[in-house]
From TrEMBL:
This is Thioesterase domain-containing protein. It holds the Pfam family 4HBT. GO terms for cellular component: cytosol. Keywords: Hydrolase. It comes from Actinokineospora fastidiosa. Residues 60-138 form the Thioesterase domain. It comes from the Bacteria. GO terms for molecular function: 1,4-dihydroxy-2-naphthoyl-CoA thioesterase activity. The keyword Membrane does not apply. CDD domains: PaaI_thioesterase. InterPro entries: HotDog_dom_sf, PAAI_dom, Thioestr_dom. The keyword Magnesium does not apply.
Length: 148
């Protein structure tokens, strides 16, 4: 099984690209939910996710936690993509605004995250989730702690 130590000598962007290029990446929330990489550049990451009936809230629409997880993933990976080898991170704060209900019917949602600031001890990023028609579904910001 692959571990974080296997990527220790790589920059954040190199490690992310190596992980996503593996035929069988290590277990992670993205593979569990069915996230797919759409873009993986320095400071700019996008993932898509097909909605599923199992992701519905009691009202039958997509549970907000799915969008929050998607946003947390793209924003944190955008931060990770800007870090040098041997430097880690963790989400310190996550803020999500929901603007549209999403059917849990198999439609595709896409999240894009970009860094705003990457400093010595903290980094910030912002993200947006859109539906298959390009309409804004949710947006958010994060602060990540940098582990040096």
């Amino acid at each position: 099984m692959t571990t974080a130590l296997d990527f220790a000598g790589l920059s954040g962007l190199e490690a992310l690209r190596a992980m996503f290029a593996m035929p069988e990446p290590p277990p992670n929330i993205g593979s569990f939910l069915g996230m797919r990489v759409e873009r993986l550049e320095e400071g700019d990451v996008a993932f898509s996710l097909p909605t599923r009936p199992e992701y519905a809230n009691p009202l039958g629409t997509l549970h907000g936690g799915i969008c929050a997880t998607l946003l947390d993933s793209v924003m944190a990976c955008a931060v990770h993509s800007r870090l040098p080898a041997g430097v880690g991170y963790g989400t310190l704060e996550l803020k999500v605004n929901y603007v549209r209900a999403v059917p849990a019917d198999g439609g595709l949602i896409t999240a894009a995250g970009t860094t705003v600031h990457v400093g010595r001890s903290t980094a910030t990023a912002e993200g947006r989730v859109t539906d298959a028609e390009g309409r804004l579904v949710a947006h958010g910001t994060t602060t990540c702690m940098i582990y040096r």
